TrEMBL record, chains A, B:
NCBIfam families for this protein: asnS, PRK03932.1
PROSITE patterns listed in its UniProt record: AA_TRNA_LIGASE_II (PS50862)
Gene it is expressed from: asnS
Protein's recorded name: Asparagine--tRNA ligase
Gene Ontology MF terms in the entry: asparagine-tRNA ligase activity; ATP binding; nucleic acid binding
Family recorded in the similarity comment: Belongs to the class-II aminoacyl-tRNA synthetase family.
Originating organism: Olleya namhaensis
One of the Pfam families matching this protein, by short name: tRNA-synt_2
CDD domains: AsxRS_core, EcAsnRS_like_N
PANTHER family found in the cross-reference section: ASPARAGINE--TRNA LIGASE, MITOCHONDRIAL-RELATED, ASPARTYL/LYSYL-TRNA SYNTHETASE
Catalytic activity as recorded in UniProt: tRNA(Asn) + L-asparagine + ATP = L-asparaginyl-tRNA(Asn) + AMP + diphosphate + H(+)
Amino acid sequence: MKSFTVATLLKETKLQEIQIKGWVRTFRANRFIALNDGSTLHNIQCVVDFENTDEALLKRITTGAAVSITGELVESQGKGQSVEVTVTKIEILGDSDPETYPIQPKKHSFEFLRENAHLRTRTSTFSAVMRLRSALSFAVHKYFNDNGFYYMHTPIITGSDAEGAGEMFRVSTLDQKNPPLTEDGSVDQTKNFFGKDTNLTVSGQLEAETYAMSLGKVYTFGPTFRAENSNTSRHLSEFWMIEPEVAFMDLAGNMDLAEDFMKSVISYVLEHNADDLEFLDKRLLDEEKTKPQAERSELSLIEKLKFVTENNFKRVSYTEAIDILRNSKPNKKKKFNYIIEEWGADLQSEHERFLVEKHFKCPVILFDYPANIKAFYMRLNEDGKTVRAMDILFPGIGEIVGGSQREERLDVLKEKMAVLDIPEEELWWYLDLRKYGTAVHSGFGLGFERLVMFATGMGNIRDVIPYPRTPQNAEF
Amino acid sequence: MKSFTVATLLKETKLQEIQIKGWVRTFRANRFIALNDGSTLHNIQCVVDFENTDEALLKRITTGAAVSITGELVESQGKGQSVEVTVTKIEILGDSDPETYPIQPKKHSFEFLRENAHLRTRTSTFSAVMRLRSALSFAVHKYFNDNGFYYMHTPIITGSDAEGAGEMFRVSTLDQKNPPLTEDGSVDQTKNFFGKDTNLTVSGQLEAETYAMSLGKVYTFGPTFRAENSNTSRHLSEFWMIEPEVAFMDLAGNMDLAEDFMKSVISYVLEHNADDLEFLDKRLLDEEKTKPQAERSELSLIEKLKFVTENNFKRVSYTEAIDILRNSKPNKKKKFNYIIEEWGADLQSEHERFLVEKHFKCPVILFDYPANIKAFYMRLNEDGKTVRAMDILFPGIGEIVGGSQREERLDVLKEKMAVLDIPEEELWWYLDLRKYGTAVHSGFGLGFERLVMFATGMGNIRDVIPYPRTPQNAEF
């Protein structure tokens, strides 16, 4: 007798005696068990001969119970499945008290499910989301591996806070109440675990550059942190970031890479996760119906994914984009929350979405941004006022990728750091890359949860990571 | 004219005009450039026509300089390569001052290279190690993906310190010198970022169990932390861990999985990284020659890898192992540092290595350990004194994998937690897994850097991770 997962059993064509283990999703009419084991969105229907089954046993077949079923795989009489299982033996592995089990066979609010995040993957929505998250992760690794990149684990605990991407979390082993003090009364960091003040990383880019400048093509995919007190549906205090970095690649190459990469990972899930995507597509459609017409998306989830894979990304300079936005209807009619008045303005999500959804009707790559709204390490253009930065804009979400060609000239980089008061001693190793065998190089960063939100249609970032960390919340 | 990487160029058979960019490893006789770009261990030889090249330019072709070369791919006249490049044009992209460049074309100590970790992948040894690290990472993801596992990102910042695997790092945003205090004078954690005291995770296992109990087969691969002040060649404060967790799988299934997994990832690098392994095999051989005969390994690096892939792992109970060790020669002759006297003793690396290298001469899986030397969540056997734990022992290294079947019975788990003073309130969600649809489940943990050490033959764990974090050291 062969053991199956639900996924393999639903594809099985040989009618035979089988064994399967899983959790009861529903039990209808004292007869029909919808059994799920996480291997697929779908349940396998298991039909119990209730007339010949002990009453006490039947009562224990409840939503959430773990069961082991032996039976015959047969062609299904009912709709919605081609095969089902005629149960010959059922064993309750673990009961689930229907009075107290939080995950009832009904619609729960996402907020309630966040409070029960340890059980929420027992619902179709969250199991689909997390299977997609996993598939996207694999697609990322596969893309880079297939294209000759090396995966690099950049450090999580860092002694430098030079990048200035945001507020940081301190990492310490000092006594919290009575830290050791130096003679001048400041905290004595020499007594700390690492002998100095340390924080959680905000980005692995600078370290990734060191490896690109020896191994050629590398990428990171690891957790990064922001200690900003922003309680929004788009921010996490702990999130995963993907950062490729490539030697001898300029900004145009960077755009080529990012476009190819994004298309590849989204194509991967369109190909491998059709069931989960169809389910989430329908879920989003239902959710959209509850919104006023004007707020609904023009594209369904799957249409949005194909919008990315089937369109060329339009490359537009920041300067050109500002012109378009300044002369746009929503700007003239003051429909934007932030009116674009002059060159140098930082673009908001509403502007990015306008460019993608209304103006160009395709994903957009903006490039050559004003230097003063971008990071210190970006390559200054010959005009002296713009840098070789690029952002990729997607429908519904705005910016999803941010990247740049890096400043490879030692003197220009030092000057920029001086202006921003970044001490050279702290980044001596980063400067070394410009001292010894410097070369043009580029890379980009992608917040992985933003990608998962885009690919699943989920509206709150807390619903696309297993255990979200946000201000006032580090449960589980 | 086509651009190549060194890896693709060395395999190219069409003799043609080519372009290639990389870093000069050596420049001999004013003529022969050994060029490397990280794409492979090997260099491509580029031959400069020094008689027709500007003297000033020749002087800038130094070790570490980044260059762009145009030339003809020709059959090589010299030994050691089948093709080489006749240079028609060379452009210096980035100079490298031979007076100050730290990575000279000579042997550097690993200690020196650790201080220059941002440049050490410009050496053959470290580029080989890091390419292998990357390949092993991919092999891990590929194995689990091919076998129906979902990749899960477990949280890094945790509000719980229940697992007790070791000392933890505190994560905080409170003022370090003058933390806010409550009325009773203790630190007011409600003012902290997460509203409570938080730490860096020591393991993702407990959270992985929650996903196994809904998605069936999952794994984690992420950073974990230990704040222990242990300055050894085998410990890091920050390291990466792989932790699969599977529902409905017992200890025997866990052993099958772990053996198959270890063989698979090691086979992967034997197949895909032959060049790097041969180089490291030779490096280790040279290193061993400097040791006294008695301390040398009987197996070369590649032999050790094949020792794993070609042998069945011998499964031995802890009790049986104790008997073997007690009656062994080194125990009787008091050659072990720790003499095994009775059942209940914790095994040391010397004992594990004896079992693998001398007694069984194959990888060994020890199982059914005494309950009191193992973690609270391990499944108690019917004998009431052993738990369904397993450790996999490898040659040269001892324990490399530790796993167990998990205690799935609510009452037994609660009792164990009570004995160890683990508050139920802190693990309410973990206990929920035993309340609602509990089932047999198992998993294991593998410290990734231990695997990289094993597969590369490197003796110090600081040399197998890009930027090691250890007591008093968080540089870069």
